[in-house]
Amino acid sequence: MRTTVIIGGGLSGLAAAYTLQQHNIAYTLIEVKRRVGGAINTVRQNGFVMDGGPSLINHEESEQLYTLLNSLHIGDELFETKHGLSLRSGMQTLTDTLDRKLNGGRLHRMAVSSVGQIGRIFTICMENGLMFDAKSLIVAIPARYAERIFYSYIPEISELLRGYRYDTIARLSLGYANEHLPTEPLKATTQKYPFVYHFNGPPRAPTGYSLLHMGVRLTPPMQLAADEIIARAIKDLNLPPAPTVWHLDYWPEADPLDVYELKHAQNMRAINELLPGGIALIGDDYAPTPLQKDGIYRIMKRIQLAQEAARGVANFLGAKRN
Ligand SMILES: Cc1cc2nc3c(=O)[nH]c(=O)nc-3n(C[C@H](O)[C@H](O)[C@H](O)COP(=O)(O)OP(=O)(O)OC[C@H]3O[C@@H](n4cnc5c(N)ncnc54)[C@H](O)[C@@H]3O)c2cc1C
Fold this sequence. Notes:
Layout: E1 2-7, H1 11-22, E2 27-31, E3 42-45, E4 48-51, H2 62-71, E5 78-80, E6 85-87, H3 92-101, E7 105-108, E8 112-118, E9 121-126, E10 131-139, H4 143-149, H5 155-161, E11 169-177, E12 196-200, E13 209-216, H6 226-236, E14 245-251, H7 262-274, E15 279-281, H8 299-321
Parallel strand pairs: 1-2, 1-10, 2-7, 10-15
Antiparallel strand pairs: 3-4, 5-6, 8-9, 9-10, 11-13, 11-14, 12-13
Helix pairs in contact: 1-3, 1-8, 4-5, 5-7
The structure holds flavin-adenine dinucleotide.
């Protein structure tokens, strides 16, 4: 029997695992993909550091994040850009470092298909037919997957998560020699390109080069090949035709939209009432309804939710032991 099973190896699952480890609680982390990190993904090429997912950290979160980064010995990674805070070697440094610190059990390239409960024991069924038992469970996957794994266990939760809506975006990075870039600042944001960030030189580009990092709105399913999207962006933004490097990540289900609905808080209350002790549901899609659409800044909030969930599990297991 496993002590705690964590489903999902994105930032939330990794942060929960790290916190459990600090409480000396054994865990097994299950991640469907080959790599952990989930939405966090950095590509490094020819001296350019290109984030395909999150790239910025909220200033208001900087103190707490700095404390965490210091405890991971990567405090010097935090740097100030004119658009917000970021990490010198890319956001994946955070998840890679958490990953390296973890010494618990790991199952990669294995998907959880359903969870259940027999008495006080949680059961975890994998798509490949394997089954595990655990005393506690942290579910750190988006609502669109959680809906399915809860279906035969607590169908009311699946019902509350059904049809969860997301925003779609692509993240495009283009690297140029400074001498090839227009001297005029890039056009203001548009509906199609909601943001264009310009990083001049190190640490995101070699000296004498710039990295342009932008959001591109594309309606799913993605109809165009990556090179067509890049060609259009270059034309729309009046950029030089041949970037030194480029990287494109397409996110058909990027930002959770339901979280901004009034009904979300009500649904989350109902879900939390339905969840038995010893199980937690964490990640973007279950966060409290924000007071305003605070956009992209969620990194530290995800970590805090994961830490709270891990502490909750620790208390639950401690209470069970006594
Ligand atoms: C394009 C994009 C840009 C963003 N930009 C910013 C930003 O600039 N600043 C900021 O603060 N935040 C940003 N965010 C938000 C931030 O990335 C997220 O809050 C955070 O990464 C969410 O982590 P998570 O672990 O909760 O979810 P995820 O990263 O989605 O991880 C979930 C993990 O679960 C795995 N999984 C799913 N189903 C199963 C299953 N059945 N069995 C096993 N494993 C499973 C997945 O493979 C994945 O690895 C951005 C998000 C996106 C998508």
